[in-house]
């Protein structure tokens, strides 16, 4: 393990958590996107994280999408409503998305803290032996 492995491993965590926050942001931005009942609803995105191939850190293994079935909502005033007055919204739960956003943000911050502390430790090590 080299002295910069801590920074590299934390950097992979920063990347994964940034992609997680991007996916949650997309889900929240489309939570009120209505479509006709005959059209597919917005499919929520979920990031799948896995151990990095070299065993040092983590990586995004893929993006899984939710269901396109969505949920039917009675809204006859909506211009996209069908004959019965229904429109389709994505099946995304706001509280679950906000919880995911907070977890991703905290993990992102924790990884940045590791990078900062590692940088400080390396700088202190360089000062050893200097009067």
UniProtKB/TrEMBL annotation:
| Protein name per the record | Flagellar basal-body rod protein FlgC
Q: Give its localization.
A: Bacterial flagellum basal body
* Family membership: Belongs to the flagella basal body rod proteins family.
Judging by the UniProt lineage, the source's domain of life is Bacteria
Q: How does it assemble?
A: The basal body constitutes a major portion of the flagellar organelle and consists of four rings (L,P,S, and M) mounted on a central rod. The rod consists of about 26 subunits of FlgG in the distal portion, and FlgB, FlgC and FlgF are thought to build up the proximal portion of the rod with about 6 subunits each.
- The regions listed as transmembrane in this protein's record are none
Q: Which organism is it from?
A: Kineococcus endophyticus
Q: Coiled-coil annotation: which residues?
A: none
Q: Which UniProt keywords apply?
A: Bacterial flagellum, Cell projection, Cilium, Flagellum
């Amino acid at each position: 393990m080299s002295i910069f492995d801590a920074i590299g491993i934390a950097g992979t965590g920063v990347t994964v958590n940034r992609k997680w926050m991007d996916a949650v942001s997309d889900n929240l931005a489309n939570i009120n996107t209505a479509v006709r009942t005959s059209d597919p609803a917005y499919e929520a995105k979920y990031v799948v994280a896995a151990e990095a191939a070299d065993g040092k850190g983590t990586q995004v293994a893929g993006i899984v999408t939710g269901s396109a079935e969505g949920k039917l909502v009675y809204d006859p005033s909506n211009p996209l409503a069908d004959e019965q007055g229904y429109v389709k919204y994505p099946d995304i739960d706001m509280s679950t998305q906000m919880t995911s956003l907070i977890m991703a943000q905290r993990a992102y911050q924790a990884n940045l803290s590791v990078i900062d502390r590692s940088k400080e430790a390396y700088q202190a090590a360089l000062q050893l032996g200097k009067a």
